[in-house]
Specification:
The chain contains ten helices and eight strands. By secondary structure, it is of the alpha/beta class. The relative contact order is 0.14.
Length: about 300
């Protein structure tokens, strides 16, 4: 198998037929042996029915039907454990990322690169808030990690099979694939493109999921939040020390004391807030350690034609 194309699916019935048509045209145009691997991540629409129907008409289609919604990164990981291609493509089903770009990415990989990712120049159909938060997050990640994670990129990329082999032995449960791939090193490059608006349907990444995804990325590849707690601790201690000096000065030199209700409450609330933030951040790291220690399966396959 020359190329395996991984497509995670969550309620994408309106996009699957056109996606299949465009991917097939691209693969045939490149002239390679290929497989299209659809991973149904607990869809509640007719996505799985469409995939099964297409698999009966097209022998290049493989499908993995998960037992419930495990999340985008886990769905991709399920396919990564199965694919056979010398090169592996990850692409979403919403047609925001053009399948036609795969030809250029594959040509780049043939030049000797192990990873070629797609870098967005423009993002159509996105709200200002989403564009702003995404821009801030990716640049924050590049600052707080000790290796470079490409900015303005998603999971749309092509990888050599050696990258896939390494991903298979990376044990963490809270997956952040673009971070894992960047962490590996190797020869990586990019091609630029203008991202289109979603073809049909609603995004599978509302704000709540985006926030959870961001937390996964930060806690997986940086201990900066833990360092930040230490900094907060020093600041709180310094402020408390100044207050103590002021109280002693007032008592011995000014011969006056204040009731101090306001300063006492401000100090208690400030220190209490720092402590709650600290507990929350530490809890996030411990929760991820707990998930890894339990060693439950990353996903459960309900049905597959592999």
């Amino acid at each position: 198998m020359d190329i395996s194309v991984i497509i995670p699916i969550y309620n994408e019935e309106g996009n699957i037929p056109l996606l299949h048509e465009r991917l097939t045209k691209v693969m045939q145009g490149i002239g390679v042996d290929y497989e299209l691997v659809f991973v149904n991540d607990g869809s509640v629409d007719k996505s799985m029915e469409l995939i099964k129907q297409l698999s009966e008409e097209d022998s290049n289609i493989r499908y993995i039907d998960l037992s419930r919604n495990f999340g985008h990164q886990i769905a991709v990981s399920a396919a990564i454990d199965k694919v056979d291609g010398d090169a592996v493509v990850i692409i979403d089903a919403d047609l925001q990322d053009p399948p036609e770009l795969i030809k250029e990415m594959y040509a780049k990989m043939k030049e000797g690169f192990e990873v070629v990712y797609a870098k967005r120049k423009k993002r159509s159909g996105e709200s200002y808030f989403k564009l702003l938060t995404a821009k801030v997050f990716y640049r924050l990640m590049s600052k707080i990690t000790n290796f470079e994670i490409p900015v303005d990129t998603g999971d749309f990329r092509i990888m050599h099979h050696k990258i896939v082999d390494i991903l298979r032995i990376m044990p963490e449960k809270s997956k952040y694939l673009r971070g894992q791939i960047a962490w590996m090193g190797f020869n990586q490059t990019y091609v630029e493109y203008d991202r289109s608006a979603r073809h049909k349907g609603e995004t599978g990444y509302p704000f709540k999921k985006m926030l959870s995804f961001a937390i996964d990325g930060i806690t997986s590849f940086s201990n900066f939040p833990l360092k930040l707690i230490t900094y907060f601790g020093f600041i709180a201690s310094f402020v408390a020390f100044i207050v103590i000096l002021y109280a002693l000065y007032s008592w011995y030199f000014l011969d006056s004391t204040n009731a101090g209700w306001t300063s006492t409450m401000v100090s208690i609330l400030f220190i209490g807030g720092v402590q709650m933030i600290a507990i929350g951040v530490i809890g996030e790291y411990l929760s991820r350690m707990n998930n890894n220690v339990k060693n439950r399966p990353l996903y459960i396959i309900k049905e597959s034609n592999y």
